[in-house]
Amino acid sequence: MPKKKTHRAISVPSPQNVFQLKLTLRYIKPPIWRRVLVPDNILLGDLHYIIYPAMGWGGFHMHCFRFGGGFNPVEYAGTMTVEDCGSHIRHEDSVSLAQMIKRRGQTFSYEYDFGDGWQHEIKVEKVLTFDPTMRLPVCLAGERACPPEDCGGVPGYYHVLEVLKEASTSEQKQFREWVGLYDPEHFDLEAVNRRLQPKDVTEFK
Questions:
Q1: Which end of the chain has fewer CB atoms < 10 Å from its terminal CB, N or C?
Q2: Which CATH superfamily is 17-145+186-196 part of?
Q3: pTM, full prediction
Q4: Please, what's the largest Cα pairwise distance for the chain?
Q5: Pairwise CA distance, residues 205 & 42, whole Å
Q6: Cβ-defined contacts of 29-33 (< 8 Å, 24+)
Q7: Hey, which residues does 126 pair with through a beta bridge?
Q8: CA 197 to chain centre
Q9: pLDDT, tens only, 126-182
Q10: Per-domain residue ranges for the chain?
């Protein structure tokens, strides 16, 4: 898993359960999704460092977790976002996943890149008993590549797909060069798990 800057606001107990989470990028069809297993003792800040490499993002932008529906969800984010947006946003390292997840079937959201506004639904598919022989986190499955960074959100993503099919104007051809070798249907499970489980990173225990 990619290294994170340490900002521990609470002590982290040993894991008791494992959550099977399905990460789905909203408003895009066919769906772009990943299925991951994570220990329940990780902080929300740790979950960020699982989501973005699992999806395929670079981790260059700010992000936010949201729990609860309606117009007043409880929000958690990293230090920079908390400092920029005010005290109504709580620090993501102040709470563990076990404290936030109450049941199988629960959903919450994760936004990556406030400019492009990539909204992810996270659904708790299963709650499993923790097995110390398991190497966590791990991605079990997924489909399709996440959109290119900074392509302009969902409308920009569909523009990418159009240009990949046909680039007739000079502007479209320049945009096609910027997109590069992007393949929207590509998903490499082994590559995802290499990002989640680099050899020099200690596992969650």
A1: C
A2: MM3350-like (3.10.290.30)
A3: 0.88
A4: 58
A5: 9
A6: 30/143, 30/144, 31/143, 31/144, 32/143, 32/144, 32/145, 32/146, 32/147, 33/142, 33/143, 33/144
A7: 20
A8: 15
A9: 999 999 999 999 999 999 999 999 999 999 999 999 888 887 777 777 888 888 889
A10: 17-145+186-196, 146-184
